[in-house]
Design brief:
11% strand, alpha/beta, MetI-like fold
Length: 540
């Protein structure tokens, strides 16, 4: 959760139940600020509203992050490339009532508002809280679920409750940037230490192993994953109740009203209750809101009831943790498919980077001074700014001025542009390594400058740049992982998704590392042979 301050819901749903979403996301500052001026200057384009758009296309595009895990959005056990979860079921129910089909769009949890802004999705349905900040930037629906925060401690550990947490410098963990993290920080007030984690299950595992004394999690997260963490127990009742809503783009009230009508209908005929019941998100009777722990922040006034979130006997729970070869059997094929996307991005982006880098190097080395200065600035800008920032600009900002590329081609272009700067410096160093006399001799033999570069200088420079060029290609394979910021689920992202949902971290890590090694090591061998052949020697 990003903001623990709740606001009064526009309507009060008639069902109780805790909920939240298990999110795993990297902490990063907002990248939109540097481009605010460009967004303001973007031309205004007349468009039909989102409700007309989805009805015309027959598809409700909804955004979420499957890396978060159960019971919200998580990979299917039998087909990990597909998603399941109660929010998946809810999206399909809403789409059915709107007369369209649902289409899931993967995106980083904290970037979903950006996907909404550039019209890649119609709605956000992924455990987003009803907060002042969110409601000011987007259009909220009526609440569809309620959640609470549950303190979890190690069975038999020194910390067994809120008060003992503030004694002796105890350590507690929470999801980075979440309301749980903020709640812990306010409660501790310097008397205990708060550690931030990219994934909720990571913090739960750290408590079980003794690295942390406690963790603050959302009630359904604990109930869903409790079988995998038998060493954890709930300390006290849930605190800080709140509500979850669906968000649309600001001003799209017609779409949100249609979503509200679908939610009302699903609530009235029991479809919503059936969905929540399948995942253990309903309780037999409502429980009153839990009070804050001593010295802690009080729950917001007017919040919905919170229940412990214990799953019903027939409710969906996390499958038993797979181990050893079972992990390879069940998930190896999915990782190989994700590696295919990594290979496709790399083999398309690097030749473009090489061609552009060579052109830049030649322009800087042999072009007129104004061109050389311009290209030098180009190289420094690309080398001096993060790849993630460049991808963000291409994918999220350029659509504001009418330039929109699909996520895959944005990844190809972004990687090619970024690596062209490094390739340009490698080629420029190779050109400088060739004695000036080589060019002078070629010109003296009657060659033109272009012919001298092509037949004399460049072949010699190529021999020099092979090792660093191959190293760049290998690095590019690994840097494709940054493309997850633009919704691509490549090998590293797929590993992270499966790791959070299965907790088979070591096995999945080994498989992922082997796949990266299988992609990169043959390149290194090929480069050595090619280098030896060009030098007239033998391959090592």
């Amino acid at each position: 959760m990003r903001n623990p301050r709740g606001i009064s819901p526009p309507e009060t749903p008639g069902f109780p139940g805790p909920a939240h979403r298990l999110r795993s996301r990297r902490a990063s500052p907002s990248l939109a600020a540097p481009f605010a001026l460009l967004a303001l200057l973007a031309p205004s384009v007349a468009r039909a509203d989102d409700l007309d758009d989805l009805r015309r296309g027959g598809v409700l595009r909804w955004g979420g992050d499957q890396e978060g895990g159960g019971p919200y959005i998580f990979p299917r056990d039998d087909l990990p490339e597909l998603v399941t979860g109660f929010e998946v079921d809810l999206a399909e129910e809403i789409a059915r009532r709107l007369g369209v089909r649902a289409s899931f769009q993967q995106g980083p949890w904290d970037r979903l508002p950006d996907l909404l802004r550039i019209r890649k999705i119609h709605i956000i349905l992924n455990g987003y809280e009803l907060t002042d900040a969110h409601a000011a930037a987007m259009e909220p629906s009526r609440p569809y679920l309620r959640y609470g925060l549950q303190l979890l401690v190690r069975r038999g550990g020194a910390v067994q409750g809120w008060e003992s947490l503030r004694r002796g410098g105890a350590r507690a963990g929470a999801l980075t940037g979440s309301a749980a993290e903020g709640y812990l920080q306010r409660f501790c007030g310097g008397l205990c230490r708060v550690a931030s984690y990219d994934g909720s299950t990571d913090a739960m595992r750290e408590v079980e192993t003794g690295k942390l004394d406690a963790t603050l999690q959302d009630t359904p997260v604990f109930s869903f994953y409790a079988p995998r963490f038998p060493g954890l127990v709930a300390a006290g009742e849930p605190v800080a109740p709140g509500s979850y809503v669906i968000y649309g783009r600001k001003g799209e009230r017609r779409l949100i009203e249609a979503v509200n009508e679908a939610l009302r209908g699903a609530e009235a005929d029991g479809a919503l209750g059936a969905i929540l019941g399948r995942y253990g998100l309903l309780a037999p009777t409502p429980a009153p809101p839990a009070s804050a722990p001593p010295g802690g922040a009080a729950p917001p006034a007017g919040s919905a009831p919170v229940v412990p979130g214990a799953p019903e006997a027939a409710a969906v729970q996390a499958a038993p943790r797979p181990r050893g070869w079972e992990v390879a059997r069940k998930h190896g094929g999915t990782l190989v498919q994700a590696a295919g996307l990594t290979v496709a991005l790399s083999v398309l982006a690097f030749p473009l980077a090489m061609a552009l880098g060579l052109a830049v190097a030649l322009g800087r080395r042999h072009g007129p001074r104004p061109l050389s200065l311009l290209l030098g600035g180009w190289v420094e800008v690309l080398r001096g700014t993060p790849l993630m920032l460049q991808l963000y600009f291409l994918f999220f900002v350029l659509p504001e001025v009418g330039l929109s590329l699909p996520a895959f081609w944005t990844g190809v272009v972004g990687l090619a542009l970024n690596y062209s700067a490094y390739e340009a410096e490698i080629y420029r160093a190779g050109l400088q390594a060739i004695p000036p006399g080589q060019m002078e001799a070629a010109l003296a033999l009657g060659m033109s400058r272009r012919e001298a570069l092509r037949w004399v200088v460049l072949p010699q420079a190529f021999r020099v740049v092979i090792p660093p060029m191959v190293s760049d290609f290998i690095a590019l394979f690994k840097d494709t992982s940054v493309c997850s910021v633009i919704t691509l689920v490549e090998l590293t992202k797929r590993f992270s998704v499966l790791s959070q949902s299965t907790q088979a971290t070591l096995e999945l890590m080994a498989l992922t590392a082997l796949l990266y090694l299988a992609m990169s090591y043959p390149l290194a061998l090929l480069a050595r042979r090619l280098e030896a052949r060009l030098r007239g020697g033998q391959a090592p």
